[in-house]
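ERR on first pass: missing label on line 2. Operator R.T. fixed the label and resubmitted. Corrected input:
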Amino acid sequence: MVTIRDHVRFTDLKEASPEDIRMLARNESEIQRTEMADVVLGHLRLMDGANAGFQVDRLQHSLQTATRAFRDDPTDEELIVCSLLHDIGELMAPVDHPSFAASIVRPYVSEENTWMVLMHGVFQGYYYWQHLGRDNTLREMHRGHPAFEHTVKFCERYDAPAFDPAYETMPMEAFEPMVRRIFAQPATFRPPKG
Ligand SMILES: [Fe+2]
Ligand SMILES: [Fe+2]
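pass 2 clean. output:
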């Protein structure tokens, strides 16, 4: 936990001085750098036991997606961490969890991986939306996007098959150092892009 020693004097943001704002920005970036990984890992743990009827719970699905990415390429930490966190919004934003998850990873990862997380719901829809009377080919409207094939691969190889209780899934502890490394980087503000 970061110790905050200085506090601003203003009670109305309109009266903030440049020094106030710079001090707050310094504190906030220090908090992000040191605490973000714990916040994210803590939220991921809330998915333990959450299950709508799959053979694995939401945490196991996330771990299994990340395990599959890891076994494909153990050096691609950014993709592994995005795989681990791609469904992190399912509890807080069940209607649009990809947007929630993308907003968490966006400041720390490439535009390609952010887009993959943001769009994975539409791309996963390819496998089952037809059973709900929805257009499962909606992802085709994005064909040609620089991250299209990357997102197809993520769904086909990591996300879609990651509901298997018999698969040897790596534990949370295996991924924690990777999450810490990704979230210890300075955050870059990137406005959302569809
Ligand atoms: Fe998802
Ligand atoms: Fe998923």
